[in-house]
Amino acid sequence: MQSSKTLRFAGDVSIDKIQIITSSGFYQDITGQVITMQFYEDLFSPFISGTIYIKESLDFVNLFPFVGEEFVDMEITTPSSDKPGIKGRYYIYKLSNRELIGDRSVVYELHFISVEALIDMNKKVSKVYVGNVSDLVKGFLTDKTNGLQTKKDVFVDPTIKNAKFISNYWSPVKCINYLTDFAVNKNNTPDYVFFENRDGFYFISMETLYKNGEYQEFVYDKYTRDMQKSRGASTRNINEDYKRIMNLSIPTGFDYIDRIRSGAFSSKVVTWDITRKIYNSKMYTMFDRFGKQEHLNKYALASNRAIFKSNSALINLPRQSQVFGGFGDPSNYKTLQERLSLMKLTEGNKIQITVPGRTDYTVGQKVKVRLNKIEPVSDKDTDTEDKMFSGFYIIAAVNHYINREMHECHMELIKDSLILNLDGK
Questions:
Q1: Cβ pair 175, 195 in contact under 8 A
Q2: Is 134:96 a contact under the CB 8 Å cutoff?
Q3: Burial, 318: exposed, middle or buried (Cβ in 10 Å; 0-12, 13-18, 19+)?
Q4: Which pLDDT tens digit goes with each residue over 154-184?
Q5: Backbone dihedral region for residue 169 (phi beyond 0: left; psi -120 to 50: alpha; all else: beta)
Q6: 3-state DSSP call for residue 346?
Q7: Model-level pTM?
Q8: How does strand 226-228 pair with strand 200-205?
Q9: 323 contacts 276 by C-beta, under 8 angstroms
């Protein structure tokens, strides 16, 4: 792999450093031995991970030696870009698929993950917590005793609700994931997620991500090069090349049965409070507050003619008021149904694309996708856009695939709404 400062084509990449650090402090640059690497980020995963595929004849396994106590430092950028690249220190937790190639060469994979994952696996917290949800989350991320001890940037969306719970020897991440069920933003929307990307750790409402500006546009068409009418020639436009979708797939366009069973459309919660001896039930539908919330696109994923009943998704929830003295009801009864619906509809439309790689692409970014209809069209047709699958999306997962020649990004994009009005004439 090479280090370059001049952008030659869309998908060009500069490998500035891949270095192994042992527990004894020994450093070794392995950039020249790397064949390929993959760098994974996921909106619904707490940590960054990845793999490095190595071919070498220096016997690193015995030189370091590799025993599961090593770290990898990496710096990877897009040439000529002033935007953030892939940079940081990660823990090497696994060596696999080692094969001999001839007498003097060997290939194998190194698997790495964020250092905080190692801390999380080695901490089990037994303690009562009470306070504002966002304040509790900050503590679990930064606290040296019971937290992840991260020194990375932390982005926590303010919450308006308090929580009280007992961490029954849970890890810090399990505590944070538990708190996502209780987090409510200023718009009373319970759609928080917890994840890590190269900017740091995020505990954030999906509504906040929806309100962000468009980061990039991706187009699926037959574009190749810009044509110069005056000369009758063509020129490469790298900015336009970056917009082009190389591969596109839609594993599931929709699943009505899954939406019904999961409570995405509607649900009924039945509760009983064993301390107050009270039985209660509550109905919810996806249209209750749709117009009062932020969405990626203007229109809902279902029309007002959709067939659903609240009884199709029944939730039984025990409640125990005053189980914590003076705290009232510690359950998430008021927001449970709405959160189940919103989180399911967040992935209401999901597409997978491959685009020329850029190191600044990361999960949580808002992108625009423009697809064309597959029906026959004529020169007179002015509207050829596929309105079902075009629109704004959130990058939910990205795999940066880098080899000696190029950089590709394999992305999973999700959206909770449509640009097509299903109730229109």
A1: no
A2: no
A3: exposed
A4: 999 999 989 999 999 999 999 999 999 999 9
A5: left
A6: helix
A7: 0.92
A8: unpaired
A9: no
